[in-house]
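Re: your question about adenine phosphoribosyltransferase

S., sorry for the slow reply, the queue was backed up all week. Below is exactly what I fed in.
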Amino acid sequence: VEARGFIFAPAIALAIGAKFIPLRKPGKLPGEVISELYELEYGNDCLEMHLGAVQRGERALVIDDIVATGGTLSAAIRLLGEVVKSLSCFVLKSVREY
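Result:
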């Protein structure tokens, strides 16, 4: 998801024989996209994915570098959840404030 997840995702996709599909912030992907809004600690944001990038019944692995509120990861799950057969998430680090 977004830029820092791109460091790991292509290598993992290659290793498991999967395709790499970027999920980006608004306006960064060319062509037609689908989008999902989500809440942050300080407001709202949006994730976009190329329309048709994932086909019905495919499997997906979402990789993100960090989870603070879970908003970005939840938006990724909602974007992919209607189409994919199974969905797994991998997070490199979790941040919690006490």
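The chain has one domain: 2-91. Helices lie at 2-5, 9-16, 71-81.

Happy to talk it through on Thursday.
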